[in-house]
Amino acid sequence: MSNSTNPHFKKTAVIGVGLIGGSLAVELRSEGLTDEIVGIGRGRANLETALSLGVVDSVTTDVAQGVEGADLVVVSVPVLKIADVIRMAAPVLTPPCIIMDVGSVKKAVIDAVEPLVPEGVRFVPTHPIAGTEDSGAGAAFKGPFKDRLCVLTPTDNTDKEALEAVRSVWRLAGSNIVEMDAVTHDRIFAAVSHLPHMIAYTLVNTVAAAGGDETDMVRFSAGGFRDFTRIASSSPEMWTDICVMNSEFIVEMMDNFSSRLEVLKRLISRGDLDGIKEEFRKAKKVRDSLISEGWDEE
Ligand code: NAP
Q1: What is the pLDDT of residues 78-104, one digit of tens each?
Q2: The 3-state secondary structure of 138-161, one letter per residue
Q3: Ligand 1: does its nearest atom lie under 6 Å from the Cβ of 158?
Q4: Which of 178, 193, 260, 298 is buried deepest, with most CB atoms within 10 A?
């Protein structure tokens, strides 16, 4: 690594060359931040895709072999597996290597990873607020992080120079950086990201089952249902892991949602037109004000 404002890495290892890890590899290369990128995964198929698309320079399914000699390790596997792959990498990592994860849950990841990081190796927890419902190396592209937030959740153990280097990487990928503590992060994203995914998955299942004949009702659905449920096409593995790793806040937000839905249900059952209208008016006001403030709708 050259210096903290313009980092340069000799060898970057990306463990999990999917949408996020693959896209970050594309950015690292196009910004000239690394000489070499090794892609690491579980099986050959996805890795061969990454190689053929030029996302990485070489591939391996052997984590220790892939990270050996790396001065940057990007960990972009589903959150429940982040600590597992770092445990496999740790014995061969040498200071002053930086490990950064991109997981959608922070507190449980940090708690599991920090004790595994060898002396002198620097771990920086990050979460880019970007992505689509697609997954795998074929979904990687240049630009997903541009003008998006990237949340950094450093702890008392986070090395300041490594934090600055990681901050520069995300800035050069186009992100606007915010810092917060991991618990605050997990509560916020349980509300604005994890809860909507739970609702989208449940809504599709509810409508699919409602007609008796599984596909009947869905066939009549149009643009609104399609837009609302887009995120139900997200990777089941990734979202199962997020539920496990952020269960407390997700359950809290699901309880809040159920109570709110119950209020609306009661208003509808009573035929309380003013009450119903007031619920809709409140929600529309919040959403409209976000749009007028330049809210990005992705
Ligand atoms: P993805 O496209 O499914 O990529 C994850 C990749 O990890 C897969 O391509 C898989 O590749 C590899 N992998 C899975 N388990 C592994 C293991 N045990 N060991 C090694 N490799 C493994 O998912 P993603 O959307 O990029 O998400 C990756 C991370 O980014 C997750 O932690 C997620 O929470 C976070 N994130 C996602 C988004 C989003 O919107 N998608 C946004 C921000 C952060 P192989 O098949 O080659 O093993």
Answers
A1: 999 999 999 999 999 999 999 999 999
A2: HHCCCCCCCCCEEEECCCCCCCHH
A3: no
A4: 193
